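Annex B. Sample input.
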Amino acid sequence: MKKRIGLVVLIVVAVAVGSTCYAFLNVKAGKTTLNATATSQGASQGSGIPFPEKMNQLSRNMSLWERLSPEEKAQAVDAVIALYKNRDNIAILNSGEFYVGKIDETIKSNPPVANMDIMTLMRILSIMEYDFYNGQNKEELARNTLGDKGYEENQMRRRMTAMFGAR
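Annex B, continued. Sample output.
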């Protein structure tokens, strides 16, 4: 019964977030409709795909990611952060823009990651950044999620980042 309630809440939240973001983008774009003239105005208009469809695609894999504008990417990441917060009571404190950069870097350095869905990728990246607040010990969560080898590599990356101030 709880799973069904959770699923209903998830769907309601996803629809609410999606429709709100879609309405915001539609108003922001000057109420431009998605017709041939609107989509032929260039890449600055974004992918031309309605937000709920983008999120549906990203929930299966990240193949659409590279075609999204920076604003669309941030919107998608913010929606995932909100979903984790509302559905699972999990806090991710870094900004959507921070994770857009992390996702871009990760996909460029490891193209098979594009086969993951956005929720899983965000979970892994936020755990790697020790930014996944679900009540578990951060070290234990990282080791369980990344495995021993991945955990050690992540520790090295974090040390290098702390030493050199790079992201």
